[in-house]
Amino acid sequence: MSLTVLFDLDDTLLENDIQPFIQRYFELLANTLAESISPQQFLQAMQHAVYAMLQKQMPAGTLENTFDQVFYPALGVSKQSLKEKIDDFYRTKFPLLKELTRPRDTAIRLVECAFERGWQVVIATNPLFPRTAIEQRLAWAGLPVDHFPYSLVTTYENSHFCKPHPAYFAEILAVLRWPQMPAVMVGNSWEDDILPAEKLGLPTFFLSGDNQAAKSASRNPLSKTGILEDVLAWLDTIAQNDGVPSYDGIAAILATLQSTPAALETFASAFPEELWNQRPEPKEWSFTEILCHLRDVDREVNLERIEMVLKENRPFLPAAMTDGWVETRNCISENGRTALDGFISARSEILLRLINLAEKDWQRPARHAIFGPTTLKELVGFVATHDRIHINQAWQTIQTLT
């Protein structure tokens, strides 16, 4: 069976002690901008901007947008005014950091074997850097993007969440249309790579010289701890399993809800707007109609149900026949970009009610007209399943039209 493999980069595929690397990286960039910005002001602005990316939990805007909204106002300058200097930095100064890193022959052969087996490979590095910085590090690792057909390389331009949020991993799978095959994470950081991937439901390989039994207690039964040389045999074993992760834990359900608007925004960014209202077939929905459907169901069904369950004791939830709304509301004539913004806004309202909910509240009961006795967790789980269906529908629509 095929397999989707997510690989961390630093100290997984590339030998790179990340803290000294980042310190030197910031020093070089601060020196590059010193004529315009004092190093102290630069470092303070950088710290605030990185913190904003690390804290981001809502789907609106990429990490680049989040960074820009904090970094440049803190400096009192526009992004455009520094663009030439920053671009030159990545061309001429960033390559000097290569000396702090070393490729790993075992990692190169591991990735080569993954492609030889026909697996889907993702570079799941924390997307706090621009694409050029990540692509250069991949080249230093002997794994350049022009040689290996990665399904995705996460960067701050194409990601809406970062590690250690499970939503980071859910967004990857959503952009890949929730592949119906085993998916795994390989990384060296317990906090950034292993815990959040496990919360989503992925088996993981923890690269560690220590067999940390205490940390293994709550992991997926297929997960393993070991060294890089052990990874390929483990991946071969996983690939022989037919199981697809269930994504049915509370953290996984929340991460799915966070990732859906993010993935749709990513799809939209590469889809010509003149095609958004075009149907692939007369009886199939256009991209805009899919967005309207998701927006309206969130606004008028999902949000209302969640609020009822949280406020009332075992409320009765009537059935909602929503598919017909696309026709009766003439959604095909709506502006697709406005519909996407409306969906992101409606979903964010739902997330605000769920994201800090106590675990006991997820078990609050309700009575559904069709499903009978249920809980908030089961209801929101239905929303996540609905999301995954329409992610695939949206992708197929785009592929047919382009």
Radius of gyration, rounded? 22 Å
Mean pLDDT: 95
Q: How would you write the strand order of the largest sheet?
A: 5-4-1-6-7-8
- For the secondary structure, the number of strands is 11
CA-based shape: globular
Find the structural class using helix and strand composition.
Answer: alpha/beta
Question: Largest beta sheet, briefly?
Answer: 6 strands, parallel
SSE order: EEHHHHEHEHEHEHEHEHHHEHHEEH
- Please bin the fraction of helical residues: 40-55%
Alpha-carbon distance between the two ends: 29 Å
Task: Please give a structural write-up.
The protein is α/β, with parallel strands linked by helices and 402 residues long. Helices cover 52% and strands 9% of the residues. It contains 15 helices and 11 strands. The strands form 3 sheets. A 6-stranded parallel sheet has the order 5-4-1-6-7-8, sandwiched between helices. Strand 10 and strand 11 form a beta hairpin. It starts with a strand and ends with a helix. The model has no long low-confidence stretch (mean pLDDT 95).
Write the layout of secondary structure elements.
Blueprint: E1 4-7, E2 14-15, H1 18-32, H2 39-55, H3 63-75, H4 79-92, E3 102-103, H5 105-116, E4 120-123, H6 131-140, E5 152-153, H7 166-175, E6 183-187, H8 190-200, E7 204-207, H9 213-216, E8 224-226, H10 231-239, H11 250-269, H12 287-311, E9 316-317, H13 325-328, H14 336-354, E10 365-368, E11 372-375, H15 376-401
Helix pairs in contact: 1-2, 2-3, 7-8, 7-11, 11-14, 11-15, 12-14, 12-15
